[in-house]
Amino acid sequence: MTYRVCFxxxxxxxxxxxxxxxxxxxxxxxxxxxxxxxxxxxxxxxxEGEDADPRTRSVLDQHGYALDHTARTFRPSWFARxxxxxxxxxxxxxxxxxxxxxxxxxxxxxLLRSYDPAADDLDxxxxxxxxxxxxxxxLRMVEAAADGLLAAVREDLEGRQP
Length: 162
Description:
The chain has 162 residues and is an alpha/beta fold.
């Protein structure tokens, strides 16, 4: 049974595709790519159908991450097929929990940085209106949370085995 994870930010061109790319790489490195499906979406449709921000692509490329991406908008009907929905900031968390059709679905929503034990602020700031430094910082935050997230997903997968 496939474990499905979706990262969500505002427009799905900066933070969530970056998180998708990093986590997909971690899943592949762990040999779980046949068991874990990773994607991303935005809370709004501002950039639907567009590629990731060029700064996102540049930072990911520089750090050896691949990304095949087209921005899309998160749909409440997706909750039924997802195991975990990762919000990149508190605003996304609130929006996603409001969109959740059931309390069980709302329980699938978590903040990505909650998986980083060293994080003192659980929001990943939006780098869109700044320079490249903000995108580099976003990547550092995503990478810092990725190992803890991978451990949690691995634990959930082990709990599913008979």
